[in-house]
Amino acid sequence: MWFFAELVVDGVLSGSVYALISLAFVVVYKASRMINFALGEFIMLASKLVVTGLHVLGLGLVGSIGFGCAGMVAFAIGFNRLVLRRLIGQPLISFIMVTIGLGIFLQASAVFVFSGIPDSIQLPIAQKPIRLMGLLISLDELVTAVVTNITITVVSWFFQYSRTGVALRAIADDQQAAMLVGIDLNWHFTLTWAIAGIICVIAGVLWTFISGGGFSLILVGLKVFPIVIIGGLDSIPGVIIGAIFVGLLESLAAGYIDPLITGFSRVSAYLVLLIFLFIRPYGLLGKAEIERV
Questions:
Q1: Sorting pLDDT into bands at 50, 70 and 90, what band is 37?
Q2: N or C of the chain: less Cβ packing under 10 Å?
C-alpha cells in the first residue's frame, strides 16, 4: 500500500507539471480556436532563452527569467505581425499548417543559434525527496505543483472576469462579430500568444530543473494532446483533471505494468486518447460544437 500511495502522490505531482504545459495550449485555443502544434518548440525556445541569460549573459536567475519572458513576448509580437494577422478570416487548416511549419523552423534554428549553451537551470530548491506522513515526496515537484496552481488561478480569473478575457472569448466565438463591435483582433492575438509564451517560460524552467532541458522539451509538448482531449480543448478545469489523470496513469503503469511490458507507461495516455476520441471527442468538460447547417 505504501508503494501504491507513493505512486499516486508522484502521479499527482507529475500531473501538475503537465497541467502547466497544457495551460499554454488551452490559452491559445480558448482565445482563438487555434491548435498550436508547435507547443513543444515554444517551451524549448523559452527554456533556451532562460539558459542563455544564465550562462551567456550572466543575468542571474531572476534576470534570466525576465529575459526569457521578454524574448517570448517579442517573439509573440513578431509572429503576430508577420504571420497571424495575414490569416484572419482564413480556414482553420491555415493556422494549423502555420504552427507545424513554425515548429520545424524553431527546431532547425535552435541547433545553430543555441549551439554549445548548457541546458541546466538550477533553482534554490532541494531536489532530494522529503518524507511527509511516511511518504517520500519530491520537493521540486511539490513546489512545481504550488506554482502551477497559482498560475492556473491567475489565468482562469483573467479569462473569466477581466474585460480583455471576455473580449478574447468573444473572438473565439466569432471573429467577424468581434471586429464589428470594435475589438482589435491584432492586439488580442498578440496578447494571447504573449501570455502563452510567458507560461512556456515558467513551464520550461520548472521542467528543465526537474528533468533536464534541450530537445526533450519538444517531446514533453506531445503529452499535451492526450491531456487536452481528455479534459476538453477549451476548459481550464478540464486540463487540470486531464493532467492529473495522465500523471496518475503514467505513474501507476510505470510501477506495475512496465516491469512486464517495457515502455507501456509512455503510450498509455495515447491509448486512453483513442478511447476518448470514440466515446467523448470533446472531452470531460469541453463543450460540443453545435452548428446550424
A1: confident
A2: C
